[in-house]
Amino acid sequence: MTDSAAQNPGGEIVTTVAGGTGHIELNRPKALNALTMDMVHAIDAALRAWENDDAVTRVLITSASPKAFCAGGDIRAIRDQVVAGEDFTHFFRDEYAMNQRLADFPKPVIALIDGVNMGGGVGVSIHGSHRVVSEKAMIAMPEVAIGFLPDVGATYLLGRLPKGVGELMGMTAARMGAGDALAVGLATHFVPSSAMPNVKEGLLAGEDLDAVLARFGDTFPAAPLPLDEVAEVFGRDSVTEILAGLAATSGTWADTAREQLTTACPTSVFVTFDLIQQSRGRTLAQCLADEAVVGARLVRRPDFVEGIRAVLVDKTRDPQFSPATISDVEDHEIEAILAG
């Protein structure tokens, strides 16, 4: 294969091949690159075309948005399907298949994360081999706020972070800046935002990957999250124990976690905790399968539609979940949602 012209240059996904680099650009900037079904299919098609193509030695994933890498999946569209009584499961099926293909890809996959990266965007980036962040990066899995769960293989990823960090991120929607993302292993390299275009240009010109990252890389920024405290609080054996530990902990990070838990869906908090615990004995494929089953059950609950209303539609951030508090959640309800 020779260097190619842009495929679908005006589309939501633009693909090219240059310098041995298959380039996927997320190109839905007005929606912060929220993933649509067409985008999922286009990414998967590019990966399938390139995985056995000797002319493509690596894949580069970037964003056309100055604000975001990817703000997640187009969850409002899923909500509309749920309200209309339509089948929504095909989106998750195809998205998770793409996530697995990305994780299994036999060549380096480099994501340049220069802005917000949440939910479905994590699935398009963090499964790759090189996760390059700038000082503008902000990584989060905020699904508990809408009555859902961290998906796209996030339960697998969160279960392999330092003790307590995955539970903190999944249960409270905690946001990770560049320093913390690097410290816990979500990110692998740091490049200042001003130099991200240089990395892209170098790779598309066929330059050596490690050399480009070394040339434009910089000293890692500070990691403010106190990992020992997080391990002590969120590394406990139950949601109840975690909340007790959090109540007795001071500090900005703990204050933020408590505040975020006040608007999180109580059912989602329990489900997320349990899935992260289970993930440590499962493969990515098994975790994706678990997320598909459990996620479909959560989407069908009233909390999902209510969460999206409060966060994304009306933007009042006053969800009326049921059960309304963590203390109201009953074990048998969580067991039914998690049942195999």
Automatic annotation (TrEMBL):
EC number of the protein: 3.1.2.4
SUPFAM superfamilies in the record: ClpP/crotonase
Domain Enoyl-CoA hydratase/isomerase: from-to ranges: 22-337
Gene3D superfamilies: 2-enoyl-CoA Hydratase, Chain A, domain 1
Molecular function per GO: 3-hydroxyisobutyryl-CoA hydrolase activity
GO aspect biological process, one term: L-valine catabolic process
Domain of life: Bacteria
Keyword annotations of the record: Hydrolase
Keyword Hydrolase appears in the UniProt entry: yes
Signal peptide extent: none
UniProt cross-references to InterPro entries, sorted A to Z: ClpP/crotonase-like_dom_sf, ECH_dom, HIBYL-CoA-H
Catalysed reactions, semicolon-separated: 3-hydroxy-2-methylpropanoyl-CoA + H2O = 3-hydroxy-2-methylpropanoate + CoA + H(+)
NCBIfam families: PRK05617.1
PANTHER family in alphabetical order: 3-HYDROXYISOBUTYRYL-COA HYDROLASE, MITOCHONDRIAL, 3-HYDROXYISOBUTYRYL-COA HYDROLASE-RELATED
Designated name of the protein: 3-hydroxyisobutyryl-CoA hydrolase
